Structure formats: structure tokens, C-alpha cells
Amino acid sequence: MERMMEHNIFDRVFEKTYGPVIMPYGCLSDAETIRVREAVQSLRQSYQPQYANEACVSRYHTEENRKAYMLAYYPYYVEPACRVVRDYVIPALQERQAFYPVLNLAFFAGGPCPEMYGTLKALRGAQLHDRTAITILDWECGWESEQQISWQLCQEDGLVRCGDEGRLIYCCDNLAPCEQCMHGRTCRKRIQEQADVYFLQNYLSHVEPTEQETFLDKMRATVEQAKPGAVFVIIDLQYAGSKAIMRELAARVQAEWDVPAEVIGTNLFTGGAPAWSRCPYEMPAEVQAKIFRGDSGFMPKKWTRYYYLVLQKQ
Length: 314
Description:
By secondary structure, the chain is α/β, with parallel strands linked by helices. It has helices at residues 2-18, 30-46, 63-72, 78-96, 114-123, 144-156, 184-192, 212-225, 240-255, 285-290, and strands spanning 100-108, 129-138, 165-170, 197-201, 231-237, 261-266, 275-278, 303-313. Strands 1, 2, 3, 4, 5, 6, 7 and 8 form an eight-stranded mixed β-sheet that branches. Helix 4 (78-96) crosses helix 5 and helix 5 packs parallel to helix 6. Mean pLDDT is 93; it is low at 1-5.
């Protein structure tokens, strides 16, 4: 069962996003193929900043780009979250508490939230908790269809069960004080007083150099408001700006903060080489034949290189 699941998520993402595969002709017409390839190209170009510390451009404003993200990136960002949760988060939570009747998970800047699938995949079999309370937060409200796909995948694979709860919160700005947000009271009760794990994956690459100090201030406030034992997971791709923000955050936790927190996992130091994860899911032949043909800008992706930082409030 595990092996079958590992090889069918890509197919299901494709079918839930674009429709069922009808062989031998597939489900994408020539016109649809052109639109998908244009959206993939738009996304890939946005992740190639001209300068080392320049932020990546957010191009998630169109439905076509959001759908293309599900093919071009979603399957590849499950494994980094799964590895970090398995190696650091679960042991940290177990050391703090043997069993969680309700495990509260908050995913910030979630987008379609492949990290939710990866987190729940890592938790399966850990015998750490009974039910889960999951919150996905994002600035943009357009991701709802893709978030529903992510939730459906978790349901199909038994990663969420009867009694588990999911909630979406939009207009969440990671650069603004929670006190200024219309969701402030909701998040205080649902997250700040309850969350066991805070997750932030592939957001730092979109933070401009002029916004870095604002983000660090917001992170400090978030850790300060969290309950003791809460774990914070930050994962981002191999960008100089992302690495610099994470290293500065780690340095402040270790030296400057009066907020009791500890770095419990990272690959930022000891040479600072990024981690590598290979996507365990097979790309459907339909996707490779029509979209990722191997021509310029459309090479099939196999590996993801990333940095991670895991904190725990004491």
C-alpha cells in the first residue's frame, strides 16, 4: 500500500486539477497544452531572480498559474516537509508530551499546502496523536480549489480521519502584526493558544531584502505568543536571501532573544549545504509527453534542494 501511494499522488494531482486521463489521447487539447505550458513557464521564470538577494516574484494571481503549480511544484514539496517532521518535529513533540488528544497544526503562507500532506504522512504510524486540528493561512484566497485537492489527497490516503478538522484563513500577512489583522482574535484562540506546530515552507524566497527585518520582528512576536513546547518549522529553497533570513533568525534565537526558544534542527551551518530530496512520485506519461518535454524551460524536475530551520519554544 505504501509503495502504491508513493507512485500515484502525481497522477491524482493531475486528474484533480485538469480532469481524468483518457488514454491514449490524454485529457489536454492542444490549446489547453499551450496554456499549461505558458503558465509553467511564467512560474519558472518567477523563481529565477536576476540578482542573488532579490526576492522571487509571486505569480499566483491567475487560475492557470495556480493550476500549473500543482503539476510543476506540488509533488516535489511533499518530501522535504515529511523528512523534517519525521526527523525533528515528532521527536521534539514526543519529548514534551507522550500523546496529544488533539494535535494542532498551523500552515502559514500555505498556498496549495503540499507541506500539510508531507506532515501528515510523517505523522502516520507515529502513534503521537488522536485527532488533528489543521489551519491553512495565506494572503491570497484564490488557492481554495488547490487546497481542497490537498485535503482530498489526505483523505484518500487515510492521513485525515473522521473528527479531524480543517480551516482556511485568508488575508494573513506574515509581515504585519497580528494585532492589526481582522483574524487576530480567531488566530489567538485557534493558533497562538493552541498550535503545536507552526509551518512556513517556501515563503522566504518571496521576502524582499527591505522586508527581512519586518519578518524577523514578526517571527519573534509569533514565538513569544506561542505556547511552551510549540515547534516552528521553516523550509525554503536554495536562495541566498532565504538562507540569510534563516541564519539571522537562528543567530538571534541563540544569542539575542529574551524569548525562550531553542534551535533543534537545521542544515544552515557545518558548511551550510542544502539538503536534497528526490521526488518519490512518478510523473504521468501524459504530463511528460505534453508539458515537460525536455525542451528549454520544461525539463522534468526530479530533485529539490532546500534549507530548513526548526525551533522549539521552551
